[in-house]
Write a structure and sequence with these properties.
mainly alpha; globular
């Protein structure tokens, strides 16, 4: 009787864990976007977004401890301070300085749909405009990301992000400021040239923020067909593989649209993404040294990660 109860309890726990793994990705993102939408109705969009984002990140951090995808990634890699510093200073401040004060500032000061191209479909429903904005911005982010892997000079800066040996919500924003600026430079102006209104800039930034945290999470997730539409944790784990046949794939930030168009979408059911990730070169441990690293060392993109001889 005891053994039967134990088996029954085990099946119940598995069923619950499975249900959470299927719903956690779309559920958390949908909830975060809904709360962000509510915040925009109050006139305090930025304040509400910051509160939602903090709660979103902390929820993911808690789930990483409860049902991790990879237990070895729970171990301390002594990079938490550097990860946070990159997130707050390189990712955060650069985005605020460039996106808010420049791109969004210009979009708010003028009416881009009337002064730039007049292409923006203002009569579409908001959700359709947001999807169009994501697709347009993604085109720039896709090529910024892809070129950062293929051009040695750009890879020096992007290597800071790929030097992580585990994925978790804290290193979502671990980017060199040059890498961040490069991505913004190729994506945000596309929205302005199309005549996108301010709300679309804000929505694209919000979606990118939430999807980015989920993409790097160390939570057991099962996203299935969603991997053909969105950048999911599974797809991004392949992207961090040391095998360049796997790592130089899945460049999309939010959507897989341009990876499918340009043939860089990658996933395989034959095995799980590798737990051992990173780059071949030694990355300095200190945050300040990581800032200087790209200027001191030449890191060819084609030799930056170990080839993996395993059969796909």
């Amino acid at each position: 009787m005891t053994a039967a109860k134990g088996q029954s309890r085990g099946r119940a726990i598995y069923a619950l864990r499975y249900a959470v793994s299927v719903t956690v990705w779309p559920g958390l993102i949908a909830a975060a976007l809904f709360l962000t939408w509510l915040g925009m109705q109050t006139g305090h969009a930025v304040m509400v977004f910051n509160a939602v984002y903090l709660g979103f990140a902390l929820s993911i951090g808690a789930l990483e401890r409860v049902m991790p995808h990879e237990r070895s990634w729970l171990a301390d890699d002594r990079q938490t301070f550097a990860d946070l510093a990159h997130t707050l200073l390189n990712k955060g401040l650069v985005q605020v300085a460039v996106v808010v004060t420049a791109t969004v500032g210009v979009a708010a000061a003028v009416e881009p749909s009337k002064t730039v191209s007049g292409l923006w479909p203002e009569t579409w429903p908001l959700w359709a405009q947001v999807l169009l904005g994501l697709a347009a911005a993604e085109f720039g982010m896709y090529w910024a990301h892809r070129l950062a892997h293929e051009v040695p000079l750009l890879w020096r800066f992007h290597a800071v992000h790929h030097s992580v040996t585990r994925l978790w919500f804290v290193n979502t924003g671990r980017f060199h400021f040059v890498d961040t600026f490069w991505s913004i430079l190729l994506s945000q102006p596309l929205l302005y040239l199309m005549g996108a209104p301010l709300d679309i800039f804000l929505w694209v930034s919000a979606v990118t923020a939430f999807v980015g945290v989920m993409t790097h999470c160390n939570i057991e997730t099962r996203t299935g067909f969603l991997g053909y539409l969105f950048n999911t944790p599974r797809l991004h784990r392949w992207h961090h593989s040391m095998d360049l046949n796997e790592g130089n794939r899945n460049y999309g930030e939010n959507l897989m649209l341009w990876d499918l168009v340009f043939g860089t979408h990658f996933d395989t059911a034959r095995r799980e993404p590798p737990a051992r990730i990173g780059i071949r070169e030694e990355m300095p441990e200190r945050f300040t040294a990581q800032l200087v690293y790209p200027f001191r060392r030449h890191t060819p993109s084609g030799e930056s990660r170990e080839p993996d001889t395993r059969t796909l």
